[in-house]
Automatic annotation (TrEMBL), chain A:
Protein's name according to its UniProt entry: Uncharacterized protein
Top-level taxon: Bacteria
UniProtKB/TrEMBL annotation, chain B:
Superkingdom of source: Bacteria
GO terms classed as biological process: lactose catabolic process
Entry-linked InterPro entries: B-gal_small/dom_5, Bact_Beta-galactosidase, Beta-gal/glucu_dom_sf, Gal_mutarotase_sf_dom, Galactose-bd-like_sf, GH, GH-type_carb-bd, Glyco_hydro_2
Keyword terms, alphabetized: Glycosidase, Hydrolase
GO molecular function: beta-galactosidase activity; carbohydrate binding
Coiled coil, from the record: none
Lineage start: Bacteria, Bacillati, Actinomycetota, Actinomycetes, Propionibacteriales
Entry's family note: Belongs to the glycosyl hydrolase 2 family.
Catalytic activity: Hydrolysis of terminal non-reducing beta-D-galactose residues in beta-D-galactosides
GO CC annotation: beta-galactosidase complex
Enzyme class: hydrolase
Entry EC no(s): 3.2.1.23
Record Gene3D superfamilies: 2.70.98.10, Galactose-binding domain-like, Glycosidases, Immunoglobulins
Protein name: Beta-galactosidase
Amino acid sequence: MRIFDSHSALRDLLGAEKRWSRTREALAAAPSLTEGVTYSIGDSLTYRTGSAADLAARELTGRRRYLMVVASMAGEVAVEVARQEDLAAVAPYSDLTDRQPFTGPAERVLIPDGGLLIVDIDEAARILPTPDARAVLLHVTVEGASFHNK
Amino acid sequence: MREPLDWENQALTGRHRMPARAYFFGYATPELAAGRDRTASRGFVDLTGEWRFRLFDHPTRVPASFEATEQEWDTVVVPHLWQLDGHGSLQYTDEGYPFPIEPPHVPADTPTGAYQRTVRLSTPAPGEQVVLRLDGVESYAEIFLNGAFVGMTKGSRLAAEFDVTAHVVDGDNLFAIKVLQFSDATYIEDQDMWWASGIFRALYLVTRPAARLTDFHVRTHRVGDDAEVTLTAAATGATELAWSITDGGVVVAETRLAPGATATVTVPAARFWNPEDPHLYDMLITVVGPDGASEYVPHRLGLAEVTVEDGRLLLNGAYFMMHGVNRHDHDDRRGRAVGLDRVRRDLELMKRHNINAVRTAHYPNDPRFYELCDEIGLMVLAETDLESHGFANVGDLSRITDDPAWEAAYVDRIERHVLAQRNHASIVMWSLGNESGYGCNIRAMYRRAKELDPHRPVHYEEDRNAEVVDVISTMYSRVSQMNDFGEHPHPKPRIICEYGHAMGNGPGGLSEYQAVFDRWDSIQGHFVWEWADHGLLARTDEGREFHRYGGDYGDYPNNANFCIDGLVFPWQAPSPGLIEYGQVICPVRVTYAGGVVRVTNRRWFTDLSDIELRVDTWADGVLTRTDVLQVGAVAPGETAEFPYDLPVVGASEAAAIATVVTNRAASWCEPGHELGRYQLAVRPSTDAGPFPLAELCPSPLAEVLAAGEPRNLGSATLHAYPDQHRLHVDTATGRLTFDTLTADLLSWTADGRELVASPLRVGFWKPLVDNHQQEADDLWFPRHLQLMQTSIRDVAWREDGGDAVVTYRARIAPPVFDFGCHVDVEWRIAPDGAATLRAAGSPYGDYRDIVPRIGVTLEVPGDLRRVAWFGRGPGENYPDSAAANPIGFWSSDVDAMVTPYVVPQDYGNRGDVRWVELTDGSGQGLRVSRRPGERPFHFSAWPYTCEDIDAARHVTDLTPRDTVTVNLNDQVLGLGSNSWGSEVLDSYRTRFESFSFEFTLQPLKGN
């Protein structure tokens, strides 16, 4: 898990890799898009905006091909995060959703107002229904600098 | 300031070109009209055929005399692309412009073709109009008749008409057409295809009477079971228009209207058009002039209405999903100058593989294409001729798309397209183009499309968030991304206009895509990229045929075989990818459980009264029973159940397969055509208990070398003979000889014949497929995985329970690096001659990513070509591309199992295999199996080696060997479609991690 204090810190720390430049592009576009609708930028990412309550999930979710990224648009966003190896799988991984539900103890972290959280691929996480917080939930490819993204 | 050249002036889209209009012909009588043979229409003069031609290296080098004087030039047959007739040079790029970007300028010395043809004509009667029509010229054409300038056109794949009435003379008429390969229009015609030019579609003259129809627009609106049909018709010189709609010769609606007027009629109890029942009515417009009826204009009318309600596309009020493909025009001899027979076969192949929609990527087709789609039942995503993809190379894809200076050029393209095709029932939506970025000109195109056809939805993928278009679209979104879209849908309907990049072997993962598409009703269309390979036929000096691609003509830059990316081979035969796709979208789904066959209708409009199920049951390799189930009138979306007991009592191995067939003929199939196959049940041989890998504890090598006499191993039929660096093991059926230094199985003789031609080796590499090129470039080649070296140590043998056991440890690793795999291998030879190979691998070092396979390879003598197996078949299949090949008892031979991919690559895998036999003509050979209860394996058998295939760039680089390479794989990496698209899904990834497997090889006695 990596937490950034601001969206712009993404550029400083992760460079110009296409998936992260597209993440910044998505974050810039997010405020003007319809809440609750999934949008995409190529095969690099999908993203959706909403209140933390709308984006909250009941289960910790692990992913294998698309990283869960949460960016605060307003307020502090609470997220639970844990390493998958410390959790119990509730169901098998699905290629259809790139998701695997887990259960078990998790660490509660706060994404600062305007900040951003990257959940590592060996972790599982869920957004908590933090009152008054708004966020962008992104699924960003694990593919790094070398693979093409369309 | 110098006036811009016409071909470098994007604001000028043509000169003297007539306004676009619907594609139709006028006939002298109702009977001729009923025949709809355009060559029998009034004044039709076919101008295809021989033309005089010369290619110039500069537009201004074409002599002025060319316009009025016959030249002694070469002859070409039009339609054609001149590069395919030996003039000029071919080049293939995906999106890169073949010249420096400087819009609207193109090379000053753009290649220029000059055409001439003399035609005998008569001057038209007063009031008549002679129209010259060109259906496709790339990219810029100036037309002259008898020395007079007729006009100019751009828009390579948009029809252009010119009024040549004033220039026609009695007797010989000289048509001269100057064609420039590049023009400003080229900047928006940068589709992924060969750079080639010429008059590549039909051109002809028609003579229109003084009282003539000039255009019409007919549209349908469903009201209950009836259809309200509205016609707007424009005419000149006419006093009245009579309009009728007939069905099977019976008039169902008729009326009269004034020229320029609009009329609506009702077709009661209408039979609406849909892709499953593409019913067409006969419509006739009779043009009445001062002297009576002057012409009869027929039209095949499909009653179809597309609407969007609550974010869903509806056809005639019913939900539907488009199972589509992207189709370029391509013929392996003629390029884009495709004949109509080829087009028809393309469409029939689509229908035969359950495809119900086609995207005209990325330009309008010959006008007859849409008529064929109306007739055969294919929904069309009708795209216009627009792509400016090359600007992506300078990081500014939208440069001219968002430049108002180009608006006229952009709008011209959608206007001409919509006006020409809007009467076709098959067109479910318009598409503004492809991969051109986004900007003001897209918005202007959308507005114009809606003015001309307010009712049909408009699509354009790069309006990414559907700011203006009616349907939101993406391309190459991954499976899970599509699921994200489905879970949280956009208010507008969604399609994926390109996915499943079918380059070479693949695509894989179509079943998972389809599962997501089927799950969410907001996803209403999916179009595989693409329909056909763009290979061009060539021959070696010896006359062997092969197909060329980018770079094969010395063209540079090029995108090599990126154009060999279709579901159909260049010779118009289905690839395994098409067969897989056809199964994945099969309109009838069949499952079996608890003694009940369940049949689900996945169509949208019609029931299953034309469908039968043939259930074949095999027991121990013998077809024991075939039953035919009549499915009956199962409504769309409904499921019917049929109690059915599978008759496999007593068999140790059995399989049951249901084949879905239609009992009704269509224009594209005969009765009995197979729509798909489903596995009902499989019973592998009786499960046994677990079979743990024996402890691999080799005997000291010295013990082996010291033993010089035959040793009876406690069996009357098994003896081992160490001999220098050899170990011979005699069994009841023959002798196996191992090299005691390398552990290679050097020879295996049984019943008097040799069974191996080269030693068996554990390996991770197999011939690279196009869909793994990115993995190879980024993961494998930098680590030299294709060059892994095997080093054998600790070779030993011993007796164990009456068996001879040979063991060794292999280190399999690439040069340069410090990672690899230690593999402990055991050969266990039983007295009856069965030899079981067990391998257990433990990778070391830091590489744990994916590898192409984990398995073994050996060569057998070339006469062991007959192949029988119990596993997936009959066709090739891979872990993520297996839907079309159920498990059964199959047989073939090594030559018939070759899949001749244009660029040779891995092929022929058969998965979920329980056993495979390779035999000669007498039935003698080798059987490979696994113990009951073990997981099934993969095999492939080639007349080439892996190295042969990897080294080949064309099929003619391959020469069959006198051996057969047999691959026995424990794991095979899925295909994915990452030549441009989806990586291999997680569940189908073969990782470089610990493994263990076994195979048992047994000699077969033969007849």
